[in-house]
C-alpha cells in the first residue's frame, strides 16, 4: 500500500509540543470522539487524524514533550501500521499496552497530563486520576484544547438544517416518547435528565439531520424533565418553522452555547439530575457538580427505549431490507459478470453498489463508508478505500464488501465475501468455518435475561476448532434510520452485561482475516423476537432481516453438517421468494442460480 507523506505530522507534533509548553503540560491525551462521545464524528472533531494520520473509527493517542503513542484495538492493527509513522508514534494494541500504563511509565513524576473534559467520560477521568496519582502525576482539565489551538484551518462545526422524522416511520410521536421518558425520570427520583448522545437526542425528538457523515443526526444537547417538557440546545441556523412546529410548545429551543450555563442553572435551583457516566462527557458532570445539583447516576433514559424497536420500526426494517436486498442482488449479478474481466477496482465496485441502492424507494444515503476490499485489503477489518489505496480486483483473490443504506424506514448493514475466479482450498475451508459460526448464532435460542457476551463464543467455535479467531465483536446494535452502531446491545467477548431484549436489532458477523492475503466476513442483521419454543423458561431467538445470496463458490459442503446445509438451503429459498419479485431480467436469472440448493457429497 502506498504511504502518504508523513512530514506534515512531524510539523504538527512540533507545534503541539510548543503549545503544551505554553499550557505547562507534560503530555496531552487525544481521543477519537467529540463532545457527544460519538464513534463517528464531524470533520471539525477529527483531532486524532489531524495529529497522527490515523483514520479509523476507534483509537486514542498521547503526545508528550519528547514522545508519542497511539493505541488501537485488533480491528486496526494493520491499518495503524499503514497510516501512522512509526518513527513519530509508538503503535500499541490497547489491551497489550494500555494508554494509562504507558503514561505512567513515560511521564516524569510530578508531571501534568492534560485532557479535554468535553472529550472524556467521568469513569475515564476517575480511573486516570487514580492510576496517575501513584506516580504523583496530575490529570489536568484544559480550558482550550491544544490541538485546536494549532489547527489553524480546523473545519467549522456543521450547520445543516435539522428536520422532523415522521411518525409513520418512527411509530411513536415525540410527545408520547417524552411522556414515557418523564415517567422513567420520575422513577429514578430525578427532576431532569441530561441527554448528549446525538442518536438519543434525535430519537427523543423524532428529529434528524446531516451533521455526521452517513448518520442522520444533528448536533444538539437536551435536558428532559419529569413534567414531560424539554430543553433542546441547538444552533439557531439549524432550526426553521417546520421544525419549530414539529417540536411544539413544550420544547424550549435554546442556543447550543447555552447548554453548560443551563446545567449550572439546574444546580443553582437545587435540582436532582439523572446523569449517565458512560455517555455524558465529564464537563457535564463538572458543571452540575460545581453548581450544587444532586447528581443521580444512571443510564441515558433513551438508550433502552431506542434499542427496543416498536412494531412500526420492526416492519420498516423488514421492508427496508427487502429493497436493500434487491440492490445487493443487482450488484452481485453485475459483479459476477464484470469481475472476471479484471477491469474493476475497489472504488468502481463501491460506486456501482451505490448506484443500485439509489434506485430504491426511501433511500437517503449510505449508513457508513463502504468497505470495498480486494485481496489483502480485506484483511483490514475496517478498511477504507481511497484514491491512494484503491486496488484492482484480480482473479484468484477474494473481494469483501461491507455496506449499508440509510432508508427513512430503516438502517441496513450487510457484508458479503466473493470469490473472483476459482478460490483456493484454504479460502473455501476458512469461508465455510465462518459460515458455520454465522449459522450457529443465527439458530441459537436463549433465555430472556441473557447478555450478548454469553452468545459470542457460539459464533467463534468453528474457527476456534481450527485454531483461528477474529479481533472484533460478533454483533453490534443497529438503529432505525439512525446510527449503524447502536448500544447498549452487543455480542462480543468483552461485551456489555445488558440483557438482549425482544425488538433489538443486531448484526451477526463472524469473520477471519489472513494478513497480507484476504479477509472473510459474512454479515446479516437480525431482529430479536420471542420464541415459540415450549420449555421451562421463556426464550428469545433471532429473526433474519438481511436477504442476499451467500457465495456458493466459497462453500465446502464436506465440512458442513446436514442441519447447516439445510439452513443454507432454506435461507436461499427465502432469498429467492423475497427478492425475485423485486428484480427482473438478467438479475432474476442470476439470482435463481445463486440460490440453488446444495447437497453434501456422500
TrEMBL record:
SUPFAM superfamilies: Creatinase/aminopeptidase, Creatinase/prolidase N-terminal domain. GO terms for cellular component: cytoplasm. One of its GO terms (molecular function) is metalloaminopeptidase activity. Residues 318-528 form the Peptidase M24 domain. Gene3D superfamilies: Creatinase/methionine aminopeptidase superfamily, Creatinase/prolidase N-terminal domain. The keyword Metal-binding applies. Keywords: Aminopeptidase, Hydrolase, Metal-binding, Protease. Residues 12-143 form the Creatinase N-terminal domain. Residues 538-598 form the Peptidase M24 C-terminal domain. Belongs to the peptidase M24B family. This is Xaa-Pro aminopeptidase. It comes from Kordiimonas sediminis.
Amino acid at each position: 500500500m502506498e504511504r502518504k507523506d508523513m512530514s506534515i505530522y512531524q510539523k504538527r507534533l512540533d507545534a503541539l509540543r510548543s503549545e503544551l509548553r505554553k499550557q505547562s503540560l507534560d503530555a496531552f491525551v487525544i481521543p477519537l470522539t467529540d463532545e457527544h462521545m460519538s464513534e463517528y464524528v464531524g470533520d471539525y472533531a477529527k483531532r486524532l487524524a489531524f495529529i497522527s494520520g490515523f483514520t479509523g473509527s476507534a483509537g486514542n493517542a498521547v503526545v508528550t514533550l519528547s514522545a508519542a503513542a497511539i493505541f488501537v484495538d485488533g480491528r486496526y492493527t494493520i491499518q495503524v501500521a499503514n497510516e501512522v509513522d512509526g518513527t513519530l508514534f509508538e503503535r500499541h494494541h490497547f489491551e497489550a499496552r494500555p494508554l494509562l500504563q504507558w503514561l505512567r511509565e513515560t511521564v516524569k513524576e510530578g508531571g501534568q497530563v492534560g485532557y479535554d473534559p468535553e472529550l472524556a467520560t467521568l469513569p475515564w477521568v476517575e480511573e486516570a486520576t487514580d492510576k496517575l496519582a501513584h506516580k504523583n502525576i496530575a490529570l489536568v482539565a484544559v480550558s482550550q484544547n491544544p490541538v485546536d489551538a494549532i489547527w489553524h484551518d480546523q473545519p467549522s462545526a456543521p450547520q445543516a438544517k435539522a428536520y422532523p422524522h415522521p411518525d409513520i416511520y418512527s411509530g411513536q410521536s415525540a410527545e408520547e416518547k417524552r411522556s414515557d421518558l418523564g415517567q422513567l425520570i420520575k422513577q429514578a427520583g430525578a427532576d431532569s435528565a441530561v441527554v448528549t448522545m446525538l442518536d438519543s437526542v434525535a430519537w427523543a425528538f423524532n428529529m434528524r439531520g446531516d451533521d455526521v457523515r452517513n448518520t442522520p443526526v444533528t448536533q444538539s444537547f437536551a435536558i428532559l424533565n419529569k413534567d414531560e417538557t424539554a430543553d433542546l440546545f441547538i444552533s439557531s441556523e439549524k432550526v426553521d418553522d417546520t421544525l419549530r412546529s414539529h417540536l411544539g410548545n413544550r420544547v424550549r429551543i435554546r442556543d447550543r452555547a447555552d447548554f453548560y450555563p443551563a446545567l449550572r442553572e439546574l444546580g443553582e435551583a437545587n435540582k436532582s439530575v439523572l446523569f449517565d457516566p458512560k455517555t455524558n462527557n465529564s464537563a457535564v458532570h463538572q458543571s452540575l457538580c460545581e453548581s450544587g445539583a444532586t447528581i443521580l447516576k444512571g443510564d441515558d433514559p433513551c438508550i433502552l427505549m431506542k434499542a427496543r424497536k416498536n412494531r412500526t420500526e420492526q416492519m420498516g426494517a423488514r421492508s427496508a431490507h427487502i429493497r436493500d436486498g434487491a440492490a445487493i442482488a443487482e450488484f452481485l449479478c453485475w459483479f459476477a459478470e464484470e469481475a472476471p474481466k479484471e477491469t474493476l477496482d475497489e472504488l468502481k465496485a463501491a460506486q456501482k453498489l451505490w448506484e443500485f441502492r439509489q434506485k430504491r424507494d426511501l433511500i437517503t444515503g449510505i449508513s457508513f463508508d463502504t468497505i470495498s476490499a480486494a485481496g489483502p485489503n480485506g484483511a483490514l477489518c475496517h478498511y477504507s478505500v481511497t484514491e491512494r489505496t484503491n486496488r484492482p480486483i484480480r482473479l484468484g483473490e477474494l473481494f469483501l464488501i461491507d455496506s449499508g443504506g440509510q432508508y427513512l424506514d430503516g438502517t441496513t448493514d450487510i457484508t458479503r465475501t466473493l470469490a473472483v475466479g476459482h478460490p483456493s482450498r484454504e479460502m473455501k475451508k476458512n469461508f465455510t468455518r465462518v459460515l458455520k459460526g454465522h449459522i450457529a448464532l443465527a439458530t441459537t435460542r436463549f433465555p430472556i435475561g441473557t447478555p450478548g457476551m454469553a452468545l459470542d463464543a457460539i459464533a467463534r467455535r468453528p474457527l476456534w476448532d481450527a485454531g483461528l479467531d477474529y479481533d472484533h465483536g460478533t454483533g453490534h446494535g443497529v438503529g432505525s434510520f439512525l446510527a449503524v452502531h447502536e448500544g447498549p446491545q452487543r455480542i462480543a467477548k468483552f461485551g456489555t452485561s445488558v440483557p438482549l431484549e425482544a425488538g433489538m436489532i443486531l448484526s451477526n458477523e463472524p469473520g477471519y482475516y489472513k494478513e497480507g492475503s484476504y479477509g472473510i466476513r459474512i454479515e446479516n442483521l437480525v431482529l430479536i423476537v420471542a420464541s415459540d419454543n415450549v420449555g421451562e423458561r421463556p426464550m428469545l431467538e433471532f429473526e433474519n432481516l438481511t436477504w442476499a445470496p451467500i457465495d456458493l463458490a466459497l462453500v465446502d459442503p464436506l465440512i458442513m453438517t446436514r442441519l447447516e446445509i439445510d439452513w443454507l438451503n432454506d435461507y436461499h429459498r427465502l432469498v429467492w421468494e423475497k427478492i425475485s419479485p423485486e428484480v427482473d431480467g438478467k438479475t432474476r436469472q442470476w439470482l435463481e442460480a445463486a440460490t440453488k440448493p446444495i447437497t453434501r457429497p456422500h
